[in-house]
Structure formats: C-alpha cells, structure tokens
Amino acid sequence: QVQLVESGGGLVQAGGSLRLSCTASVSISVNAMAWYCQAPGKQRELVAFIFSGGNTNYADSAVKGRFTISRDKAKNTVYLQMNSLKPEDTTVYYCNTYPRGAMSWGQGTQVTVSS
Fold first, then answer.
1. What band does 60 get if pLDDT is binned at 50, 70 and 90?
2. Nearest-CA neighbor of 43 among 21, 67, 59, 56?
3. 22: burial class by Cβ within 10 Å (0-12, 13-18, 19+)?
4. What is the pLDDT of residue 41?
5. What's the whole-number average pLDDT of the chain?
C-alpha cells in the first residue's frame, strides 16, 4: 500500500517560515502532486500543485508569493516552503496526487501560527 508521510509542521510566530515535506513509499515522478489543507469541520482544500515537469500553480492568491511547492523526484518527496506565515495559515496540511488525491491520505502535519 502506498504511504505518504508528511512532516515539517510545528508552531511558529507570525512572519516565520516552515518547510513541509511529503515522502512517498513509491515513485511519484510521473504524478502531479499537491498540498492540501483541512481545518477542523471543513472540507479539504487545495493549496498548491506541481506537475511532473515542474510547472506549479497555487489555488489561492493568498498563498501565492508566500508559499512555494517543489519536488525532488529522486527522493520521492514534495516540499512546501511557507514564508511570511499568518495565523490564518493554521491548519493541517496533507499531500497527495493532483487533482483527485488518489493515494491513501497520510496523517498530515499540523501548522500553527501564533500572532
């Protein structure tokens, strides 16, 4: 069974940075991958995605310019560099394929931004 393991979250002050990582147990080099977020009681939302060729897109203008998605195919890993963090970025972040989240969801990584 394919596993996705997210890491890198934590508690940070507003204006700080975090780098999230998501490592897959299988090769994801041909997959478009994405970061999603889900707040308690809300639906999971798309944050950013990256195609196999490296093209990227950001679902929300609020994160464009602050977040950067990237990938390392050799490590089966996708990253989300988060800069200039805001309290409203507080939530659990997950990675999965784009656009359908076809793999089993990992446990996510909690990001908490204090004001």
1. confident
2. 59
3. buried
4. 93
5. 96
